[in-house]
């Protein structure tokens, strides 16, 4: 799948970014034809796999991306914003790697005379292991994506008169030292909800209290009487603000539908923060530091040679919103195509940038509303917001239930016997189960760091229902590989799929034959990721029988190839039930 980039003139880009009427000639056509068009990525499946190339997301050239960035920043710039603070403030960037609609950056700028943006390369993020099963906490693909996010953040801050100070080490050691060196009265950072991140916040706050500043640091009386810097945590990362919810965090409904209906009826979404075009002056820094390479993070580099290659950073994020909403005009059919699995345009693909904080959910909301006003409003435009509410819900639920979302019984403390059979798990994670739909999805994950929402539900169901494997093994494997990993969404989805989370249906099951017939009826997806199936008739690709590898376990329901090996699989499920995992992580508490 070759990448074709078409440079638009500034005039045509401007018409798309600021549309007065629809400019796309895209019309509603038969869904099957649409999928064929969007799945053109797999045209090479009938030829040699050596010709397959990855497809960039977004698929715009550099000039287009920079133009979209500048135009979007211009729309969210205000000359009315005034500074009223004194002294220096630190912005501690965490999972909010953006300039546009960043409340942390906005508050720091307004309440100071100069801002020092800082990113700490924390070894606990890049060189540690997952809690129970010891997988790498961050894989090479996500590490590379974060590196690209940092490069882009540094560039965009410099465009606004600032820079990004990069230091290697623990934030609780780096941030207080910087606060002392630059006499910073306040450190601003985005508030997180999960224990590891919250623990770091507590350590930073405690260390700041040991720093003594001179009296002329610009601290106001409202910032406290002690002459030490303070850590001000700012809520961000959700579409609905925590303070605007119609209930306390302890009273958040345990069923998503109840939560959604309540916030839709009783809450409004805050507008994106508009900031000054110039955020300078930056403090005088002798050495701002360099964005680390993937090797300097202690990770193994991994090239994406097939499937989708996501570009990290705010510039790419804003370009993807423009590309999907305005240029390709796919927003109006999102609900119909969102369950696809092949190609870049069956869904928005915003999740990697949302997870890194390179993209604001409130910005997406405002773009949806702008699209509805300028083009059309339908079920598809609403459904993008519906999915963002799901994302909010998992974030708020993590606040309510704390570490229980990481425990084997989940938020509801469900008692169930799970297997930790390594042979079964290895077949799942390596894509060697004998079920093409499972194997193709797992191959895509390991090759690209991405998997469709439909695919995630299917492979989760197979692992926990058909194999009987401890759901935490799957969740931690996803933690390693996903570009869009964040603890709230990942573990929220896994507890939901395993029947131990916020799902009124405890035994939710995804039948592989049904899913394959519905979402990959011609086997295009499985043939793309499993080249050995390309020569088979389309109707055989998902059900190849002995023409593919032996199935590792029979399906709980609807096995297309009978129940061969039932006794062997049942015996495998009985091994290691209730096995204890090592306790090495704060999420165990």
TrEMBL record:
What is the official name of this protein in its record? Cryptochrome DASH
Q: Which cofactor does it need?
A: FAD; (6R)-5,10-methylene-5,6,7,8-tetrahydrofolate
Q: Which Gene3D superfamilies match?
A: 1.25.40.80, DNA Cyclobutane Dipyrimidine Photolyase, subunit A, domain 3, HUPs
Q: Which GO terms describe its molecular function?
A: deoxyribodipyrimidine photo-lyase activity; DNA binding; FAD binding
Q: Which SUPFAM superfamilies match?
A: Cryptochrome/photolyase FAD-binding domain (SSF48173), Cryptochrome/photolyase, N-terminal domain (SSF52425)
Which keywords does this Swiss-Prot/TrEMBL entry list? Chromophore, FAD, Flavoprotein
Signal sequence coordinates: none
- Which family is this protein grouped under? Belongs to the DNA photolyase class-1 family.
Region: Disordered, residue numbers: 558-589
Extract one GO BP annotation from the record.
photoreactive repair
Query: What biological function has been recorded for the protein in this entry?
Result: May have a photoreceptor function.
Comp. bias regions, Basic residues: 580-589
Q: Which InterPro entries match?
A: Cry_DASH (IPR014133), Crypto/Photolyase_FAD-like_sf (IPR036134), Crypto/Photolyase_N_sf (IPR036155), Cryptochr/Photolyase_FAD-bd (IPR005101), Cryptochrome/DNA_photolyase_1 (IPR002081), DNA_photolyase_N (IPR006050), Rossmann-like_a/b/a_fold (IPR014729)
Q: Photolyase/cryptochrome alpha/beta domain location, by residue?
A: 87-221
